Amino acid sequence: MLNSIALIIQNVAKEAPDKTAVIVGEERCTYGRLAEMNRKAARYLSDKGIKEGDRIVVEADHILSYVYVWYGIQLLGATFVPVEKNTPSMRVAEIASELNASKMITLSAREDLCEAWSLDSMITQIEALDDDFEPIAPKDDSLSEILFTTGTTGKSKGVMVSYGNQINIALAGIETTNIQPDNVWLIPTPMNHAAGLRKVHIAMAVGSTVVLLEGFRNFKQYFKTIRDNNVTSLYLPPSAIHLLLAVASKDLEQLAGQLRFIYSSSTAYPETDKEKMRKLLPNVYMYNCFGCSEAGVVCTDEFCVSGGSKYSGSVGIPNSYSEIVILDEDGNEIKDSSPEKTGLCAIRSKSVMQGYWNEPEQTAKAIKNGMLVMSDICYFAENGELILVGRSNDTINLGGLKVAPLEVEEVVMRVDCVDECLLIPVIKGQSANALKLLVVVKEGCELDEKAIRETIAQKLEPYKMPKQIVAIDEIIKTFNGKTDRKQMIAKYNA
């Protein structure tokens, strides 16, 4: 395989120039057109003095011109740095300064960021250029992307992804999904985050089609897009699936004969949602993928066609592109991990990032002995499945008794009245002295505290029983569907 996705696009264009690569609304872009515009974008950047290794900050959007410039930057062997749509000018400039970036590109001209180029003006100029750029084959260890994390557990960090990382992550995605060239993949997530970007990489790597859509909360538009474009796979985080099951289950069921797979990541599925999906879409592969921005997907649990794992908390079998080990508190490998002997998940892979931009201390904490050490507490089941117990960052310490919120939440989700729930600590001074359970009640139901307590008592140890159970309107989430525990604790700690 070639050593960048941008080069693969060029190769696919030679073999199948009329094949549709990207669909946005009513616009369709073939591989021939995409490859041409990538070359012209690279020519434009080169003529402006941008060279291999330079860093370019780009405001993201679900539009073709963004994709042209994105892969144009990488065709030049430069480093693509996407930032969220409508990021304030001050923050864009701050990121550019931190990275010593060569240029900033915003979607349109900004009076308070006049030094940036505007994408809407650039495209007209790019279109008029000669198509004579010779693509550059970058070194495997040179940077393809710098992706800024959401920062929900601390300061947002710039994840440095090399061209070698990029290819390895795409290969792992291809293995996970068995994606074919005739696949059509709908991607409604933000195009500055690893979740969305890497699905496009996977699709481009096999010469298939992606449909870009900004969000999915307009359900009528969402399902119309699926039907109109004969979409065969979806990317949706578990929180989005949970919402669709609540308000559009009939629409999902009607896709049973059309969809091949649904790809999820970011967080765990509630077992109740898995059961519903098996009934609605019994022949659609449901991949819940375990990984992170720093390494891509390393494990996958297919829970629909296979019938699902017998182990609660399973995130599946590690893929062939990653080696996973369990480490104790001293960083030593636990070779006989078990429910009684858990540890931190560590990844050894060519997918593991180069580090965090200008954060040597954070990089040293994350990468030890060539392995990315995650905050996820896990163990291996006897059949080789990796079992996620919780996150060390989330673990609540009650005077030496440690509680993994995920374990309690999974039990509570089986109570009829519960739509969503979150276990948080009640903090007094510097430590937690009690547990509080926050519950979003299903529409038409009332909070049944007695049923919740009885269910917990039947399944878990007494010290895991929350002191308070409180009904709330919603659980705050990040844009990619992760629960924002930090904000929830700050809001409901009292």
Note the gap between the termini: 55 Å
**What's the helix count?**
15
What is the percentage of strand-forming residues?
25-35%
Please state the CA-atom Rg, rounded to the nearest Å: 23 Å
Oligomer: single chain
Report the strand count. 26
User: Mind summarizing the main beta sheet?
Assistant: 9 strands, mixed
- The low-pLDDT segments are none
**pLDDT averaged over residues:** 92
Q: What is the helical fraction, as a range of percent?
A: 25-40%
What's the overall geometry? Answer: globular
Q: Structural class per helix/strand content?
A: alpha/beta
Major sheet: arrangement of strands: 2-1-10-9-11-12-13-14-15
Question: Which key phrases capture this entry?
Answer:
494 residues; alpha/beta; nine-stranded mixed β-sheet; 26 strands; globular
Describe the protein's architecture and organization:
The protein contains 15 helices and 26 strands. With 494 residues, it is of the alpha/beta class. It has a 9-stranded mixed sheet. Strands 16, 17, 19, 20 and 21 form a 5-stranded antiparallel sheet that branches. α6 crosses α7. The longest helix is centred in the N-terminal third of the chain and has 17 residues.
